[in-house]
Amino acid sequence: MDPTAPGTLISNDTEKGLIKAVAAKDNITAIKIKSGRMLLAYGFLRKVFEIFESYQTSIDMICTSEVGVSVSIDNTKHLNEILDDLKKYGTVTVDKDMCIICVVGDLEWENVGFEAKALDAMRDIPVRMISFGGSNYNISFLIRECDKKAALQSLSDMLFNAE
Predict the structure, then answer these.
(1) With bands split at pLDDT 50, 70 and 90, how would you rate the model's confidence at 4?
(2) What is the pLDDT of residue 130?
């Protein structure tokens, strides 16, 4: 929980086949847009992304299904306007006080087992979203901020302290 503590090393170096770190990003808001019209509708995601672009709001994570899309943001300056615009396309729900937990390392999809270990470590933590495959270097979990310490401890125990 303290990057300046003795024993902590932050660098861009990777090691083949190893998990290197677990990190957290606070003050995240999750937004879900659910729409029956999304099913088989091309252009739906473009319209959603254009709303965020028009308010200069970056998206951290995204997960999609056939009837909806969930995104996370860390800038809520225009949240009310974004929500009003999104409501034109479906039912919108918001979860505040969230955080993103990232497992960082050599996570190429061919390296079997890392994702299973990370998921196993999160088994007692309610997870709102999971992102894996967009990068070869991390698995991201969106969870409640109140669960952050337990998640970081469990991941640390499973990934670094397991016998």
Answers:
(1) confident
(2) 93
